[in-house]
Design a protein that fits this description.
globular, 7-stranded mixed beta sheet, binds guanosine-5',3'-tetraphosphate, GTP binding, 32 strands, Peptide chain release factor 3, Rossmann fold, alpha+beta
Length: 533
């Protein structure tokens, strides 16, 4: 292998690019913060306060940035843990949830699913997990808040299996729960890890004492009764549990389960260590060449290539430019690289790329497969665009996600109709908003989005970039699905409507979640699809 290839292979092998999927409040921010603490990026992780009341547009990380003085860009951050270069992609939750959140997942090579031990698998986690399943993204499960009263650990594993239809395999097992949670048992080595809190509020790493399970000291620490209970649980687990295989994990068929408490740092270190070992380095991605044939893009062998997974709207008045975030899929990126833009069929210089290194906001000189770069977008980049050094191929289009928020939107001033139409066209092209048309053409267009934030961004950008003030009237639909099958024979609930998307595909809007379930049962010959890949 040439020296350059060797360097590339080494850089690629060292990288882990992942996203956290969770329902709001499960502990994503706390876990992210602990990653920074354990990687040495910050020395005194404390609680990140004031997030709850923040503005809708600010991501958790932006709030963290302000409070901790850490420089974190809006889309990803990079740091080193145990000689491994970690890229964490931001997947906003709460009111920030939007199509961006889904699309960001496509840029990850694996995901950490954070579950609240008391609440189990919640709605938003399910939705995000579906994207992982669709894209065959391997998922590690982090069952959080073990320091609080929660569900039985075996029940939680069963819930993961039943709700998400994936096998689960416990990597560690909690020793005690709630107030008694004092350690975890490594299921493979049968070693107990007992944790000791060093500082209040988890501001410092927890100390770990390692003792083999079958040892007098362990028995003494736990007491005979609890020791026997633990052995029993372990036996049950071995009978009922699934064997773990790295191959099945990478194929998305089994998820390793870890029990921990992010807040107290109990179980964090063994989790991160396992994560670095289990999570895949950037791997081959599929693309289509100009003849329409499927080709493999190898992260090391193929010269630089990347695709746009997120556009950051011009939300900050001080920085007028908008940013395009690119996931590098292969090769090496150098500053000022001139690349081929596949959709536009022209060359683009990637100047002023922004680094994502926590600790310092830098201009990036070199980046490799797995890394995320943010470049100024002078209107040339749309979601899903492929750029590459050699040209001649396009990464597979990003999936489309069922919208859940619907509205009619009009310019306040009818005289601004032309600018309004132009702006809306631009925003739909960028994938910032979806536009739906009724079949009979008598009604107005319906604006659709995955999250409320998308409407806010749209309104802001129409005003800022097209000088059009808008009125938004919400429509009473709660969910939707694409219809596969004959729309004439589809038995539609009375309050539902069938409209078409910009590619003339029928999409049904439902007034209530249960109506959708009902429609699925009523129409066994039709298919209702939430995500179009
Ligand atoms: P999110 O980003 O997924 O929305 O969750 P976040 O980390 O903000 O955590 C939500 C709440 O849960 C926070 O409390 C946080 O302190 C708490 N939490 C996270 N991990 C653990 C854990 O392992 N054990 C316990 N007991 N609590 C945990 P909050 O009071 O809502 O916010 P804050 O005011 O403390 O920031």
């Amino acid at each position: 292998m040439a020296l350059e290839q060797e360097q590339l292979a080494e850089a690629c092998e060292k990288r882990r690019t992942f996203a956290i999927i969770s329902h709001p409040d499960a502990g994503k921010t706390t876990l992210t913060e602990k990653l920074l603490l354990y990687s040495g990026m910050i020395h005194t992780a404390g609680m990140v306060r004031g997030r709850k009341g923040r503005k809708a547009a600010a991501s958790d990380w932006m709030a963290m940035e302000q409070e901790r003085g850490i420089s974190i860009t809006a889309s990803a951050m990079q740091f080193t843990y145990n000689n491994t270069i970690i890229n964490v992609l931001d997947t906003p939750g709460h009111e920030d949830f939007s199509e961006d959140t889904y699309r960001t997942l496509t840029a990850a090579d694996c995901a950490i699913m954070v579950i609240d031990a008391a609440k189990g698998v919640e709605r938003q986690t399910r939705k995000l997990f579906e994207v992982c399943r669709l894209r065959k993204i391997p998922v590690l499960t982090f069952i959080n808040k073990m320091d609080m009263p929660g569900q039985d650990p075996l029940d939680l594993m069963n819930e993961v299996e039943n709700v998400l239809q994936i096998h689960s395999s416990a990597f560690n097992w909690p020793i005690g729960t709630g107030k008694e949670f004092c350690g975890v048992l490594n299921c493979a080595t049968k070693e107990c890890l007992f944790f000791t809190k060093i500082a209040a509020g988890g501001a410092q790493k927890a100390a770990i004492t390692r003792i083999p399970l079958y040892n007098e000291e362990t028995k003494e620490r736990l007491g005979k009764e609890y020791f026997e209970k633990l052995i029993q649980e372990l036996e049950l687990l071995e009978m009922a549990g699934n064997p773990f295989s790295q191959k099945e994990f990478l194929a998305g068929n089994v998820t390793p389960i870890f029990f921990a408490s992010a807040l107290t740092n109990f179980g964090i270190e063994p989790f991160f260590d396992a994560f670095v070992n289990l999570a895949p380095a950037p791997h081959t991605r599929m693309a289509n060449n100009d003849k329409g044939e499927e080709i493999e893009i190898d992260p090391v062998q193929t010269p630089f290539s990347a695709y746009v997974f997120k556009l950051q709207a011009n939300m900050d008045k001080r920085h007028r430019d908008s940013m395009a975030f690119l996931r590098i899929c292969s090769g090496r990126f150098d500053r000022d690289l001139v690349v081929k833009h596949h959709r536009l069929g022209k060359e683009v210089r990637l100047s002023r790329p922004h680094g994502m290194v926590a600790g310092e906001r830098t201009t990036l000189d070199i980046a490799y497969a797995g890394d995320v770069i943010g470049v100024i977008n002078p209107g040339v980049f749309a979601i899903g665009d492929t750029i590459s050094l050699t040209g001649g191929f396009n990464f597979k289009p990003l999936p489309q996600f069922q919208p859940e928020i619907f509205a009619r939107v009009q310019p306040k001033d009818v005289g601004k109709r032309k600018s309004f139409d132009k702006g809306v066209l631009q925003l739909t092209d960028e994938g910032a908003i979806q536009l739906l048309r009724p079949y009979d053409l008598s009604g107005d267009l319906i604006f659709a989005a995955v999250g409320q934030l998308q409407f806010e961004v749209m309104q802001y950008r129409l005003k800022d970039e097209y000088s059009v003030e808008t009125i938004i009237n919400s429509l009473p639909y709660q969910c939707s699905a694409w219809l596969i099958g004959d729309k004439e024979t589809f038995k539609k609930p009375t309050t539902a409507v069938i409209v078409q998307d910009r590619f003339d595909r029928p999409i049904i809007l439902f007034g209530e979640q249960w109506e959708k379930q009902y429609a699925i049962k009523q129409n066994p010959d039709h298919q209702l699809v939430d995500i179009l890949s």
